[in-house]
Amino acid sequence: MDLTARQQEIINVSVSLIADKGIQNLTIKNIAQTIGISEPAIYRHFKNKFEILMTILDSFELIATDVLNSEEIKDLSSLDKIEFFLLDRYRRCVENPNLSKLMFAEENFQDDEQLSKKVLNIMHSHKDEMHKVISAGQKLGEIRDDIDSIALFRIIFGPMRLLIKQWGLSGCRFDLLEEGKKLWEAEKKILK
Amino acid sequence: MDLTARQQEIINVSVSLIADKGIQNLTIKNIAQTIGISEPAIYRHFKNKFEILMTILDSFELIATDVLNSEEIKDLSSLDKIEFFLLDRYRRCVENPNLSKLMFAEENFQDDEQLSKKVLNIMHSHKDEMHKVISAGQKLGEIRDDIDSIALFRIIFGPMRLLIKQWGLSGCRFDLLEEGKKLWEAEKKILK
DNA sequence: ACCTTGTTAGTTAATGCTCACTAACTATAT
DNA sequence: ATATAGTTAGTGAGCATTAACTAACAAGGT
Fold first, then answer.
1. What's the mean per-residue pLDDT of chain A?
2. Domain chopping of chain A, boundaries
3. Which residues of B touch A25 (CB under 8 A)?
4. What's the CATH fold of domain A52-191?
5. In sequence order, what are the residues at sequence separation of 6 or more whose Cβ sits closer than 8 angstroms to the Cβ of residue B77?
6. Which of A147, A169, A187 sits opposite B106 (nearest CB)?
7. Chain A interface mutation, best of B154, B182, B185, B191, highest count of A Cβ atoms under 10 Å
């Protein structure tokens, strides 16, 4: 995962091409044109198109595990951990709106078996990490335990995904972070 | 929207082709092969590929408006209306799993401007319909009003979308309707 | 009863475009 | 001298779509 400057440029361009007009818009020609080099030059940096897509997914995988295993989150309460994770997601999306359009667009990779397996793995590992936090919070009495942790997981992350999708479809025309904070305030009322 | 038997067959096959391997899998050749006729024969029934996609979206548009304007839902309480809508969605997905993979996969249509506009319209009209129900319920005291209706909308429908997506990605390996009912029971606790 | 005409739903063959990818070559910087 | 990062030109495959033709059937006039 040590990408050269050119490789990183190709990945960035690829993400924005997909975000803009879907996976069909990701062609070697479009990548090359956007960067301003010829098509074969792309193959100096990636073996083939598949490797480009795989590298995009690799970068997604990093995001969540990074946050949940960071030092600064260690001593927080369960609710604060969830808040940290949610707001971190919103901030990342605002920083890179293209990412937001891809992050929850699992369909984009379902064309290829290897890629869709990877997508599924990423989803599962994120889910497992959050489950731990939720059930720990329930045991400590910080989170209500009259609703099972699986349902709570869906109730916390479903709305986040929907909000980010609405933001993407709206062309980023509202303040995602502010709306995200409002949503979290509402969710907090519900969790206690 | 009066489709001949052959047109309906093409639509059904198209939906399952997309659901199976993404929009890239929807080619005239694949449609023709699945049905067992030649490629040009498809053009006897649809002007072009765009019209096929448009017809698929048309059928999606019908689904939600149908439910929300049906007679049987008229005299129900707000909560029961929402329950009816949610469970109806789950049942439709179980009946036609291919539909579920497409229903919330807006990315599939973002390649084309006209199609993505249509997708956005469908989303908005569904959201507007549900907003009415939620704020009516708040005014009647059936739904808590310490959380604004926009956040409540996201808290109700975000989890449903996530659940259906998980079901699709899992290869329909759990009982969607049962899980959906459980989720709704949890959501009901939250809404009151 | 039987030709004429038109429609419907299919066929084979072909067109022009775009795709991912490769071969062969070249400039440049170390 | 050699590795790096680019170029032009081309290949073969797959794509949506069209042209031209045909078999099956139905209605109307004689």
1. 93
2. 52-191
3. 111
4. Tetracycline Repressor; domain 2 (1.10.357)
5. B137, B140, B142
6. A169
7. B154
CB contact, 8 Å: A107 with chain B? Answer: yes
**pLDDT, tens only, B85-124:** 999 999 999 999 998 888 888 888 988 999 999 999 999 9
Chain A / chain B CB contacts < 8 angstroms:
108
Amino acid making up residue A29: K
Which pLDDT value is given to residue B69? 80
Residue with tokens 């199976």: B20
d(CA A158, CA A135): 18
Report, as ranges of residue numbers, the positions in chain B whose pLDDT lies below 70: 1
Rounded to 10 degrees, the C-alpha dihedral A11/A15/A16/A19 comes to: 170
The CATH code that applies to domain B57-191 is 1.10.357.10
- In angstroms, the Cα distances linking A56 to A40, A60, A103, B88 are 20, 7, 10, 37
